[in-house]
């Protein structure tokens, strides 16, 4: 359990804390500025999410720089990312802040690509993250933060940035998933022949 893996585990442990602040049935005080309103628990959840999301690049950087790449890390890192995004998106559906179909598209893509990566690993192939995969991550994080903070500051100019960002995240997520499967279709073909 090296430093990089500890950071990854910490990201996983932050997931239930974020969900606690999002879903707890306690009346938290609100901050109100004109028509904008947000509860303190949402602000706390958003800050914890930003910290957790920022550790994604950090643990990978540390693992590569210090030559701490391990099989455990290869397993935990994508799992931590999926748990974080999935848990927060499902919480946002429960809070009626995002359409369920957008969350279904995002979660389905995430787990489908994870399955493809596992098949590739079993065949001895490592699927590198594509530029669309990185864009997908950035789009998802941007959309989630916008939803968590109730579209601040765009609510003051009456622009639904959080909704637009959610749609953009869903479209990029879907496209990047299709790209992964098209570029790596040989992995599926190979696994079918070996069965």
TrEMBL record:
Its EC number is 2.7.8.5. It is found in: Cell membrane. This protein catalyzes the committed step to the synthesis of the acidic phospholipids. Keywords: Cell membrane, Lipid biosynthesis, Lipid metabolism, Membrane, Phospholipid biosynthesis, Phospholipid metabolism, Transferase, Transmembrane, Transmembrane helix. This is CDP-diacylglycerol--glycerol-3-phosphate 3-phosphatidyltransferase. Pathway: Phospholipid metabolism; phosphatidylglycerol biosynthesis; phosphatidylglycerol from CDP-diacylglycerol: step 1/2; Lipid metabolism. One of its GO terms (cellular component) is plasma membrane. One of its GO terms (biological process) is glycerophospholipid biosynthetic process. GO terms for molecular function: CDP-diacylglycerol-glycerol-3-phosphate 3-phosphatidyltransferase activity. It is a multi-pass membrane protein. The chain crosses the membrane at residues 7-26, 38-58, 137-157, 163-182. It comes from the Bacteria. Belongs to the CDP-alcohol phosphatidyltransferase class-I family. Its main location: membrane. The gene is pgsA. It catalyses: a CDP-1,2-diacyl-sn-glycerol + sn-glycerol 3-phosphate = a 1,2-diacyl-sn-glycero-3-phospho-(1'-sn-glycero-3'-phosphate) + CMP + H(+).
